[in-house]
Amino acid sequence: MAGYLTGFAPLQTAVLETVTWLPLTLLCARRFAKDPTTHWAALTALALGLAFLGGHPQTFVFVALLTLAYFVYALIPSAERPISKTALILLLAGVSLLTTALIAIQLLPTLEFIFNSTRVSVPFDQAAAGLAYPDILQFFLTGVVTHWQTLYAALILIIRPFLIYR
């Protein structure tokens, strides 16, 4: 995520404003998993609502899915305090409904923006192509192909597992 945030988000402020709420949503989801009460459910919904209002729907989907996955992961160690499946489903439905209520003012304009976007007309084959080979080269040799950097890839993070520390 570090390369994504340092290399791409400065060019896309809405991405940064959306993903900024990820730590808070993860914290609330963890507390919600440990103490499944309406208090933590409401705070999780609030954090998700703030992430949605950041203005980048695709990044919000990533934040919401990661929060859900982390919530499920955080539930695993809490076997000493079991919660019934019905209660869990009701709490998750409550979080979803409260999040929807909090973002309702922006939901219709966002959907209209998505459906009127030029990306809707791009065929799947073209959208699924990924990065061009010269762009991948810029991971390692920045500034060679174009002035705009595709992403920042920290080489030390790539080679770090191969370094031996004693």
Folded structure, characterized:
By secondary structure, the protein is an all-alpha fold. The protein has two domains: 2-121, no CATH class; 130-162, no CATH class. 64% of the residues lie in helices and 0% in strands. It has helices at 2-7, 13-19, 22-34, 38-52, 57-75, 85-116, 124-127, 133-137, 155-159. Helix 4 runs parallel beside helix 6 (85-116). The mean pLDDT is 79.
Give the number of DSSP strands: 0
Whole-angstrom Rg: 20 Å
Oligomer: single chain
The share of residues in helices is: 55-70%
Main sheet overview:
none
Range of strand content: under 5%
Mean pLDDT: 79
Structural class: mainly alpha
Total DSSP helices: 9
- Unreliable spans are none
- State the separation between the terminal residues, measured CA to CA: 28 Å
